[in-house]
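User: I'm preparing a small set of examples for a lab meeting where we compare how different chains pack in three dimensions. I only have the primary sequence for this one, and I'd like the structure in token form so I can line it up with the others. Please keep the answer compact; I'll paste it straight into my notes.
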Amino acid sequence: MNRNEYLKNKVLYFIQKGKEGNSWDFKLEWHEKAEELLKDIICFANTIHDDDCYIIFGITDNLKIKGMRGKRRKQADIINLIDGHDFAGSLRPKVSVDTIKIQGKKLDILTIFNSNMTPYYLKKNFGGMYANCIYLRKEDTNTPDKSSADYYDIEKLWMKRFHLLGSKLDFIINNLDKNDWKYVDEKYFYIKDPQYTIEFCDEEIVNEPDYYSYNMVNSTSYYGELYLCLQKTTLLKLNTVVLDGGRLEIIVPEVHYFYRDKFGLSPKYLYKYYIEDSYNYKLLKFIRSFTDNEESNFAFKKLKEVILIFKSFDEKNSFDKYINSHINTFKKELKNLSEKFYNIDCNNEQKKLNHIKDLNTGKALNKMLEQWRNNNNNNTI
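Assistant: Understood. Below is the structure token output for the 381-residue chain.
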């Protein structure tokens, strides 16, 4: 998924929420006054959560998509505005500007990237902002002009800077930037604080790999384990598998069983999946960032053909309900898929048939998931 597709999905999700939130805001046009724009940027940069924030231009207050009509601003203009003011400690928010299309209409998206270097505040007055006063975003509201945020909220911004909010495990997960980690002796060290490590154990070849291994050029697979550690304490252990004869390493996906028999006992089908905002998927992306090459990318593409990737747990639960109510559609899609496509080097005929069924189940469900998303997006907007 490229950035434009990612941002489009974000905007559609925000619209579906039916309101503004603590990480997004809708505006029909860009700010007329530079001081109002800078204040919005500072407020969104000063958030307690660990998500990027977005100001979406071209949408009305009642969530109608109108597109860009008036004067627009470029990314260079925003960066010049930020750089042109004195921030405490010379720490400045990082931003980007992108343009996407929804319903054939252009929308500008201003992204304010999440950072632990909060709070951001000015050393000199500007507009309705006073020097050394802290302004932040709380729920769907900014701190009013010529005032300051509550003491308790300011305290949490300082706690965010010093990693005192959330668990140590969350700290690792929220700081999985490839540039901040170094790989030495099968361990990733967090450069800014080397007591945090991500460690791998030795992999072992398996004689009976999982079904998705047979959608690769090479079905040879190796299983191992990954440990997230603080000094010598293990915070999280996950199972890993190296696919395609060593070209792709992943976190083992989760499994979901569905469509049980008439007695409600044995499920007839299964699929494997990831949730984009889960620890597993974030760590998968982190591992892949170190092996971003043509062979690895091709193997990951083959993996995505037969497993599902959901945007959230809510989306998975909604899709599961959709599958159960459209089981005949699923069976029809399954029937249309060819069993001759796969090279299953397995001596057990029944296991071979099970692998083929699971592979085709993944492909059929991915097609249904794409159609289901398109229908939901069209109904939403």
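A couple of notes for your slides: The mean pLDDT is 91. The chain has two domains: 3-161, 170-380.

User: Perfect, thanks.
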